[in-house]
Each structure stands twice: as C-alpha cells, then as structure tokens.
Write a structure and sequence with these properties.
The protein has 194 residues and is of the alpha/beta class. It has one domain (5-34, 82-193): P-loop containing nucleotide triphosphate hydrolases (Rossmann fold), CATH 3.40.50. It is built from 7 helices and 7 strands. The chain has helices at 15-26, 35-45, 60-78, 103-109, 121-130, 142-160, 173-193, and strands at 5-8, 31-34, 83-86, 90-93, 96-99, 113-118, 164-168. It has a 5-stranded parallel sheet with strand order 2-3-1-6-7, with helices on both faces. The chain has a two-stranded antiparallel ribbon with strand order 4-5. The radius of gyration is 16 Å and the shape is globular. The chain starts with a strand and ends with a helix.
Length: 194
C-alpha cells in the first residue's frame, strides 16, 4: 500500500485549500501534488494550452495523453513517500463530462483512499463568485456534477480497493483540514505497519 490519498471536489468547493492546509499540518510526511498543475505544465511544454482553463477544451485524446503523463509523474513522486493528490474525478468539458482519471492513472496512483470534499450548492456558488479564478467554463448543474463525482469515487473505489471518505467543507475549513490530516495520518500509520 502506497499511502497515496486522492482528494477531489467539484470546482469551487475548496478542495485545494483543504489539501494545502492538511499538507502544512502533516509536515514532510506527505507531498502535495495537484494533477491540474501537472497537466498544465505538460500542456505548456507540448504547446497544447497556455492556461489551466483551456485544458477542458482539448480533444479527449489530448486530455488522456496529459493524464497519462501526469500519472507517470505521480508514480515517480510516489517513490519518495506518500502523496496527497488533488484532482477532479469528473471533468466538465464543453462536450460533456469525462472521467478525471483513466484506469492506467488509477493503477499508477494506487490510492489508499479517495476523499471527496463536499459543500452545499449555495456555498460552492458563493466561493466561485468570490474567487480570483474563472469558473465561467462550468455551466452545468453543480448538483449533477456532485452526483457524478460521488458515483465516480465509488467506481474508482471498486477498481482500486480503496475506501471513500467524505469531508464537509462549509463554514470552517479548519474542520475539513483536521479531518483530512487525521485520515492521512491513520492511513500512513496503517501502511507503515503493513
């Protein structure tokens, strides 16, 4: 067991903030990787996109190629210790929703757990409105996206034999950070004693 933890949430739920806070609490025990950042770096190097928002407009095969490169990067990083991996389990594109991870990517990551960060639709809308980041490409229903994500988490769980945890990230992000840190600590202890 690698001890890698995949953390996800619909855009605007605050999963990145939760991951960053948990990473600070965990110290050097875990490395935080953001799959979107890795994919953007690869896209920049190959002339496919200039901004993260452009990734969702790429052809499906280009997105799959970027996912493959990201999974190779993650596998290399995993050799140094457990990872907190911030990613989207479902990606909204102009042509519909697509899986955020391929079977190969899931196999490379070998998660010990999948953590879904959730919040109310109102909270997510408010965070999107107050953010510096552009969310205009996300036109579909937040509720439907959340349902797809939860279904994807369970499907990935079945494929990887990793449990799914749910974190509520409403008013106090510190509670979600503490819970993610506790999950990471528990799984880290379990994998080191195995």
């Amino acid at each position: 067991m690698t001890g890698n933890i995949v953390v996800s949430g619909v855009p605007g739920v605050g999963a990145s903030n939760v991951c960053e806070g948990a990473r600070r609490e965990l110290g050097d025990e875990f490395t935080l990787l953001n799959v979107g950042d890795i994919m953007l770096q690869e896209a920049l190097e190959h002339g496919l996109a200039d901004r993260r928002e452009e990734l969702v407009r790429l052809r499906f095969r280009d997105q799959r190629a970027l996912q493959r490169r990201a999974s190779e990067h993650i596998a290399r990083e995993s050799d140094s210790g457990p990872l907190l991996i911030n990613t989207h389990l479902v990606v909204e594109t102009p042509l519909g929703y697509i899986p955020g991870m391929s079977a190969e990517m899931l196999s490379e990551i070998a998660p010990a757990a999948l953590v879904v960060v959730g919040a109310s639709t109102e909270t997510i809308r408010k965070r999107r409105d107050e953010s510096d980041r552009s969310y205009e490409q996300f036109n579909q229903s937040i509720q439907f996206h959340r349902q797809l994500q939860n279904s994807a988490a369970f499907a990935y769980s079945l494929e990887s034999n990793a449990p799914v945890y749910h974190l509520r990230n409403e008013d106090d992000v510190e509670e979600a950070i503490e819970r993610l840190s506790a999950i990471a600590g528990m799984l880290s202890n379990r994998s080191s004693s195995a």
